[in-house]
Amino acid sequence: MRQTMRITKFQVLLVVSIALILFQSGCNNSIAKSPRERISINNDWSFNMGDPSSEITESLDYPVNRSRGRGGFGGRGGRGGAAQAEPVDPTSGIAAFILPTSNDFISDPEKRYERPEANYGGNVAYVSSIFDDSEWTKLDLPHDFAIEGPFSTTGSGGMGRLPIAGIAWYRKNFTVPSEDEGKQICLEVDGSMSYTTVWCNGQIVGGWPFGYASWQVDLTPYLNYGDDNILAIRLNNPPGSSRWYPGAGIYRNVWLTKTSPVHVGQWGTYITTPEITEESAKVSLDVTVSNDSKSDAKVTLSTQIFKINSQDKKVGGAVASIAPVELMIESGKKATAGTKGTVKNPKLWGTGLYHKPNRYVAVTTIEQDGKVVDTYETIFGIRTLKFDPDKGFFLNGEHVKLNGVCNHHDLGALGSAVNYRALQRQLEILAEMGCNAIRTSHNPPAPELLELADKMGFLIMDEAFDVWERQKTTNDYHLVFPQWHEQDLRAMLRRDRNHPSVIMWSFGNEVGEQSGNEAAIAIAKELNGICHEEDPTRPTINGMNSARAGSPFTATIDLVGLNYQGSGNFGNNPQYPVFHNQLPDKLVLGSETASALSTRGVYTFPVVASPLGTSTNANAGQDTINKYVCSYDLYAVRWGCIPDKEFLAQDSFEFVGGEFVWTGFDYIGEPTPFDSSRSSYFGIIDLAGFKKDRFYIYQAYWRPDYPMAHILPHWTWPDRVGEVTPVHVYTSGDEAELFLNGKSLGRKKKIFDSQVQSMDGKPAYRIRWDDVVYEPGELKVVAYKDGKKWATDIMRTAGDAAKLSLEPDRAVIDCDGSDLSFVTLTVQDSEGITAPRADNLIKFSVSGPGEIVTTDNGDPTDMTVFPSHERKAFNSLALVIVKAKRGQKGTITVTAESEGLTLAKCTVEAK
User: Fold this and answer.
1) d(Cα 820, Cα 856) in Å, to the nearest integer?
2) Confidence class for position 760, pLDDT limits 50, 70, 90
3) Cis peptide leading into 663, omega within 30 of 0?
4) Which of these, 39, 80, 202, 794, is most buried using a 10 Å CB contact count?
5) Residue range 547-587, pLDDT digits in tens
6) Catalytic site positions
């Protein structure tokens, strides 16, 4: 009996001990449930163009500074003198109700705005809760109202020939549960184009003019708890507001955020890792708490840090804890607490083949009177940045060349309406090319781009403005810059500064103020100072296309970003060494390079002999009848250059930190050199996401260890039999042998004993056989590296188009109504060889729980509206983008048909 009793006691003690350990472990690693909710309200909106026809007694248009004539372009192409905006009362009318929205981003309390007591626009029919919007269009956000077209054949092609201009209204009914009374409830808008005003239940709430900004308004005073509510949002997108396609509508995500009155403020955490070793990383976390209650609040802040995976899920228990601190916040005020902790054996955030984008999350809990009132998560990475003026950029102590591209924000046929999968696809294609960096040209990006960059290991130049006070187009940002630049810049910095992918801040692109008068220098110093105030850990940069090395403008900025002048343009010598010698303490890089032009699959003859290419014109690389540019990649705008010339400059001046090519993808608008077209010719990848030949010269240069070879042009030329048809090869090898129908046309090295093959005695970046006489059959290249076989590529002559092929980029998608499958159509001959000049009309259809979102083909001249289910193939390719109907699972069958060709089908599973 005693023995049994002893065993029982032991068992009890063991159970209690285990339970205590588990309880303590749970206390250390679990997070108490937070009152904070962030709810997507993208679905089920009503949409209508234009103001109501009934009389509006107050102007709903935002008052702006009116400009005097056309402004300068900072020197590109020699376009001259810049105009400044005429002063008006920028706080009058509706602005008096919108400006207070930005008060948190104005550092000087004396300059903040007091909201008037009136209800501006409250008598407008569309803001009323009883207005009947049943005849309006029903849709989900994000939404770009211009992308459906039609295209215009008149006016300038700069903004993409789509109907972006006009007044648009969005309305949404929603219910707020009665138990939410007493909470703080905000509307968050990630981006809306532009001059946005919000009404809630007929009461004006606030808004924001800048179409690229993310912002929020407080709905709390205007809500009906336990009852229906109506949001009415007005946008006014002016004509001539941009140099490229800005998109239109509420084109980014929209959220309702619910918190306790005492809570972490908007973008209210700032995390840095000032000391990093292999053994530990010091973490510094500033937390700003808002007190929107009617009494002072004393709170306790504590933080735990976890490792997270690519799905943002916590992995294991807490790896670090930050000791609790107390904070006192006055009623209606904010207060900031500085906290510190240590992560042992940190996993670094990095990019490239040998590094992983490791990430952590800091979970901050706020307690008041022993009760959790807020929990806030801050995702971050641990890494070091170094910008060495002589050696370049270093990430975590390792040299990383910036193999970057500039990208505008549109997603091709999807327009500017942000889509996570579409952005992810772009980054996947860029990563395949060897790209590791992106410049957000020329505006704050969608938050999703930075989230993906963090996860996928891209480096970001985060850019705020294309213009300051001097205009480039009639209705661009210069109209509101004087009153809004501080708020817009601080908002971007606070939103984005915890992203490990962001490595530098750009606050200007080719601004007219580069001339550097006293007023311009004052603006540059102010913007530079704001960046340093909000984030002293990253350097600043501007894209400069005319500022000189000795100018006071250049001196105000931390890094030297050169647009085109680095490798030498307009007949000038390369400016990389000039800036490096005159500014020896600043890293120099190519903030915008190349601006080569090409149309996928188009080749014109004769081919220019110069190894450094030429400016395109009617006699050099242009098909002026069809409005295409030759894809031999030897033609550029007159202020730019071909890839080879920039590569030569990058290799000649090893101190240069890298480049950002104009551009990664074709984009809507700016269709240089053919203004009648719809979209650009600059992209390395076309508007549909199909690779141009240029993709492979960058891949060869940026991924020297990746075995690859690429032949151009295609080898189906029935009209060129017996004619000289030059063959170029891009390869990461160092030599190659070309065969035509089994006969060798010679083995050549990148360093070749002729003017065409070498570049100032340095290795060429392509291998050329310029005297090949065309005959149909098989063209094959075998590339070598260090004398060993490295890679091969084959081009075969195709017969007549005979059949279609469909290939989805993803055969399984979510049924959330936003996930996408990009399905590529290829026109082939009877043997399955791509028919490279095919332009057959394709009819797309789907069956099952899916729908066609849009189609494209990458042809910059194609004026077929994007939503059309019929589209011609362009040089054998077309694209159809498919999604599942929201909430419906099953098999989606995609069918492509064309008269006289065998149809094609493929399936996409919606789960």
Assistant:
1) 15
2) low
3) yes
4) 202
5) 999 999 999 999 999 999 999 999 899 999 999 999 999 99
6) 510, 592
